[in-house]
Amino acid sequence: MGRRWRDGPGSLIVPRDEGGGAPTAAPLVLPLEIAASYRARTRGLLGRDAIAGAMLLSPASGVHTFGMRIPIDVAYLDRRLTVLAVRTMRPGRLGLPRLRARHVLEAEAGAMAGWGLRAGVPLSIETA
Fold first, then answer.
1. Where are the alpha helices (DSSP H) in 78-126?
2. For all residues of the chain together, what is the average pLDDT?
3. Contact (CB, 8 A) for 84 and 62
4. Residue 66: which residues within 8 A CB-CB, separation 6 or more?
5. Exposed e or buried b for every residue in 7-33, given b needs 16+ CB within 10 A?
6. Nearest-angstrom CA–CA distance, 37 and 25
7. How many other CB atoms sit within 10 Å of the CB of residue 99?
8. What is the pLDDT of residues 29-40, one digit of tens each?
9. pLDDT of 41-65, one tens digit each?
10. What is the rounded CA–CA span in Å between residue 61 and residue 55?
11. Where are the alpha helices (DSSP H) in the chain?
12. pLDDT (tens digit, 9 = 90+) per residue, 86-126?
């Protein structure tokens, strides 16, 4: 059975590597907003001009950017919080649902590349 979160703050933990594939540096810890209720997932990042860190939508397998003001990075995560794919979406787009995706992570466009997020990276989440 999958983990169930509540709406609220948390921390996203991204392992870091120096290109060799094995984590070598201290992990990157980022602020995270968790949207687990239907209302919070529906609202998501709508109407915002920026976000500090990222937002986790759970459960979710796809997103849209209708009504958004900024382009966003979207990472699709499986039930073990491993990144399946990362995409950048401009406002007014519909992202098709991903097979095996159980959670979606959203951040400002370009942020995930700076964090080193790509397919296969395992993430961790800590709640307050």
1. 111-115
2. 90
3. no
4. 91, 92, 93, 94
5. eeebebbbbeeeeeeeeeeeeeebebb
6. 34
7. 9
8. 999 999 999 999
9. 988 888 888 888 999 999 999 999 9
10. 14
11. 38-43, 111-115
12. 999 999 999 889 999 999 999 999 999 999 999 999 999 99
Q: Distance between CA atoms of 2 and 49, rounded to whole angstroms? A: 32
- The single residue listed with the structure tokens 């529906």 is 42
In terms of phi and psi (left: phi > 0; alpha: psi -120 to 50; beta: otherwise), the region of 93 is beta
* pLDDT score of 67: 87
Do the bridges between strand 72-77 and strand 54-57 make them parallel or antiparallel, or are there none, so unpaired? unpaired
Q: What is the pTM of this model?
A: 0.90
Distance of CA 116 to the CA centre of its chain: 13
Measured CA to CA, the distance from residue 71 to residue 41 in angstroms comes to 18
Name the token pair of 91. 């406002």
- Which pLDDT belongs to residue 1? 37
Tokens coding 81 = 């919080």
Q: Name the β-bridge partners of 23.
A: 17
